[in-house]
């Protein structure tokens, strides 16, 4: 139901957007194809002229890379740091872009008063308040949210987090229900990494977990595959497609939510070719599986990338270089979008 509604939304959005994309960027082709083509942006991006031109020219959705995370948005319990979120939402509206929120339930980037939660009642009250406050403020303006992020551990068990410990295993039922109540039109997503290939331990556990949520009536609309990939590992198209389809059989959409393709530094011609192949293959899959709703990149320039900080010796993962020039992966996407 909700997924059908989201497709209608995408279609309507693409019609509206068709007239307003920047003619030379990726966005025009994405709009023409009805693809939600997104990017994670940092707070400063919506104030910097070069970034503004790229973001609005290439993408029709934006997601705050860090700005909506709990420790940034509400560093202390009685202070809400709304200004950067408000600027991003206003920017998205001004440029007819969809906006995605990221993320309420997570085990990282939480302030001390969240990590200190001990009782079920206090944790439910705070989580419900956070979700309700944000989704009411941006009702009708933020189209979709990662309600929860990375709740499955690498071994396939439910991750030990403050939410699991304080509330118990029904914390996601509570989070998704609060979200649906706050903004019934928003698309509610469960996001994770290493969940893209059917047959892998974590991916299969993630699928079973989601199937159970769905069967119990938890209001979830889509799952997110983050897809922080490494160039030298080719995409397993068969396992990716079959995984996408089994979520489709549950009535769920799939979004590619945090795409980047890291390369060992220094990049070589061969590594760049591998990277291009991964980007192009992912886009082909996104365009040809009917329940894939979004192709969202986790940043756009190597100049401001999370990758080198987290993967020593790696970088070069995005479609613009450090001088904000388009890389070959950009042109691969453009060419495939134009087909
Ligand atoms: O804001 C502080 C700044 O005041 C301080 O001087 C500086 C010193 O290191 O740190 C700044 O905070 C950093 C923050 O990004 C904002 O730039 C943190 O150290 C840094 O750890 C944090 O990294 C973010 C990471 O999530 C946090 O876990 C990355 O930018 C962000 O790209 C990354 O995003 C996650 C998704 O949310 C979930 N999926 C995985 C993805 C990649 O890790």
Low-confidence stretches: 1-23
Number of helices: 14
Class of secondary structure makeup: alpha/beta
List all distinct small molecules, including ions and cofactors, that are bound in this structure: ligand G3I
Q: If classified by CATH, what would the architecture be?
A: Alpha-Beta Barrel
Taken together, the total number of domains comes to 1
Give the overall average pLDDT. 94
Strand residue content: 15-25%
Give the topology.
Elements: H1 2-18, H2 27-33, E1 36-41, H3 49-58, E2 61-64, H4 70-73, H5 83-94, E3 98-105, H6 112-115, H7 120-137, E4 144-149, H8 162-167, H9 171-182, E5 187-192, H10 201-215, E6 222-225, E7 228-230, H11 237-249, E8 253-264, H12 269-288, E9 292-297, H13 307-310, E10 314-315, H14 328-338
Parallel strand pairs: 1-2, 1-9, 2-3, 3-4, 4-5, 5-6, 6-8, 7-8, 8-9
Antiparallel strand pairs: 8-10
Helix pairs in contact: 1-2, 7-9, 12-14
Features:
single chain, 339 residues, alpha/beta, TIM Barrel, 17% strand, globular, disordered N terminus, binds ligand G3I
Structure description:
By secondary structure, the chain is α/β, with parallel strands linked by helices. The chain has a single domain (3-338), classed as Alpha-Beta Barrel (TIM Barrel), CATH 3.20.20. It contains 14 helices and ten strands. The protein has helices at residues 2-18, 27-33, 49-58, 70-73, 83-94, 112-115, 120-137, 162-167, 171-182, 201-215, 237-249, 269-288, 307-310, 328-338, and strands spanning 36-41, 61-64, 98-105, 144-149, 187-192, 222-225, 228-230, 253-264, 292-297, 314-315. Strands 1-2-3-4-5-6-8-9 form an eight-stranded parallel beta barrel, surrounded by seven helices. α10 links the parallel β5 (187-192) and β6 (222-225). α7 (120-137) packs parallel to α9. Residues 1-23 have low confidence and may be disordered. Bound molecules: ligand G3I. The site of ligand G3I has 9 residues, from loops.
